[in-house]
Amino acid sequence: MKRLVLSLVAFATMTSGANASLKYECSRYIGGSYQGYTTVVANNKSEAEKKAYIKFKEKLKKRVDYVKCK
Questions:
Q1: Is there a contact between 53 and 64 (Cβ–Cβ < 8 Å)?
Q2: How far apart are CA 38 and CA 27, in angstroms?
Q3: What does the pLDDT look like over 22-62, one tens digit per residue?
Q4: What are the extents of the domains in the chain?
Q5: Which of 20, 30, 56, 69 minimizes the number of CB atoms within 10 Å of its CB?
Q6: Distance between CA atoms of residues 2 and 11, nearest Å
Q7: How far apart are CA 29 and CA 66, in angstroms?
Q8: How many other CB atoms are found less than 10 A from the CB of residue 31?
Q9: Residue 24 and residue 70 in contact, taking contact as beta carbons nearer than 8 Å
């Protein structure tokens, strides 16, 4: 019984980290000039840049040429 419980706990621990999202800090640029930043939660850098671009344009109503996240 102990083995079963320990196995289930170990399995749950390993699988829960597979879909972990990270918080990214994304900067907004206009004409190559830094104009501010926002934060987004995403699974990878590419997704974070897409989310931040949409957030700047639609939610924050800011002008943006491109976004870089780190």
A1: yes
A2: 7
A3: 999 999 999 999 999 999 999 999 999 999 999 999 999 99
A4: 19-69
A5: 20
A6: 14
A7: 6
A8: 7
A9: yes
Residue 26: strand pairing partners: 38, 69
DSSP 43: S
**pLDDT 10s digits, 8-29:** 565 655 555 556 899 999 999 9
d(CA 26, CA 21): 15
Closest CA to 55 of 70, 36, 40, 35: 40
Helix H segments across 1-70? Answer: 2-16, 45-54
Give the pTM.
0.70
The encoded tokens of residue 62 equal: 């800011």
